[in-house]
Amino acid sequence: NVSAYLQYAAVPLIDSNVCNQYDMYNGSITSSMICAGYLNGSIDTCQGDSGGPLVTKRNGTWWLVGDTSWGDGCARAYKPGVYGNMTTFLEWIYLQMR
After folding, report:
1. What Å distances lie between residue 64 and 39, 79, 84, CA to CA?
2. Residue ranges per domain, the chain?
3. Contact, 36 vs 81, CB < 8 A?
4. For each of the chain's 98 residues, which pLDDT tens digit applies?
5. Strand intervals (E) in 1-98
6. CATH homologous superfamily, domain 13-97
């Protein structure tokens, strides 16, 4: 079922070295990806959330840092969400906007 209300989840960023451990994503996380979520799997994005924003607030301003991409299931322990790293794609985005 689709919610009638906009949903959000507050999730911490996870260092790529942690995400690349054997019991998590075993080296699959590249510099163009960001891991975010809880290691216990309590909160996560899921099917239907792809393309949704991963944002952070710095000095009162919200910044887009990633977009929801993939994960191994939904809210599974040691399988946090994987997001596209927007900083990797900034030049491409600017070129598309011309």
Report:
1. 23, 22, 11
2. 13-97
3. yes
4. 778 998 899 999 999 999 999 999 999 999 999 999 999 999 999 988 999 999 999 999 999 999 999 999 999 999 999 999 999 999 999 999 99
5. 13-14, 33-36, 53-58, 61-70, 81-85
6. Trypsin-like serine proteases (2.40.10.10)
- CA-to-CA distance for 45 and 41, rounded, in angstroms? 10
Handedness of CA 66, 18, 29, 23 (dihedral sign): negative
Check residue 92 and give its pLDDT. 92
Identify the CA nearest to 36 among candidates 71, 53, 12: 12
Give me the phi and psi of 86, to 5 degrees please.
-55, -35
